[in-house]
Amino acid sequence: MNAFKFLDEIGPVNTNTMVLDKALGYKTVEDMLTISGNYFNLLKYGWGTSILYDEEIIKDKNELYHSYNIRTYTGGTLFELANKQNKIDEYFNEIDRLGFNAVEISDGSTTIDSDRRAQLINKSKELGFYTLSEIGKKNPQKDSEYTTQQRIDLINTDIEAGSDMVIIEGRESGKNIGIYDDKGNVKKDDLTSIYENTPKEKVLWEAPQKNQQVELILTLSNDVNLGNINSNEIVSLETLRRGLRGDTLGKL
Ligand SMILES: O=C(O)[C@H](CS(=O)(=O)O)OP(=O)(O)O
Q1: Which tens digits make up the pLDDT trace of 85-104?
Q2: pTM reported for the whole predicted model
Q3: C-alpha distance from residue 51 to each of 81, 111, 199, 236 (Å)
Q4: pLDDT, average across residues 169-176
Q5: Ligand 1: residues within 6 Å at CB?
Q6: Biological process (GO) annotations (predicted)?
Q7: CATH fold for the domain made of 76-241
């Protein structure tokens, strides 16, 4: 039983929280899950990091994450690399063999036309993977060329194509990209336009910085889907969601 349960007025929040695994060892994951495994449900092995690990470590970590009902997938960058090299079938076989149960379809660093994107979402679904897709470009200049309306249209198109969850790119930095200005502040008008014109349960906002998590929780709600959470800050985020930290206490 949790300590101080009598003070937890809000309790567990039914939501999606995606954590970034940049290079966590098996024992670190084991330890991390003991303390925070109940507070997230999606885990991304960042960008191409998976290529640098022994496959047995990946299989073991995937099993461990799944034992806490946490879905695992590789960064969109690795998927884009496979697509660029025309090795999508090999990519799907490999992630299946290694025990990943989710996929991220993105075109943040490369170009994928809309038909191909829809086909890839379909294929991922047909193969039985929980399918996330991501909107946005990693290069801030290119990303800024999207209008808010275009982002809204892209989100809704992906959902129509079968995407289970659409991620709004925020990168690991959370600056000068998507809904964030160059200081990492939330561009509120963009945020609310996207929120009001897309299904909230299917949109996940990458929000690596605490100020962004607070702003999204206070502006949208404490069950807003959030991602690119640092593995050291999972419990901290959960306290924000439950009003157990000054930033949100009494404001939810
Ligand atoms: O993991 C990735 O491939 C990247 C990480 S970042 O944008 O370089 O921080 O994120 P993704 O959202 O999967 O494209």
Answers
A1: 999 999 999 999 999 999 99
A2: 0.97
A3: 11, 22, 34, 30
A4: 96
A5: 44, 46-47, 75-77, 104, 106, 108, 134, 138, 167, 171-172
A6: coenzyme M biosynthetic process
A7: TIM Barrel (3.20.20)
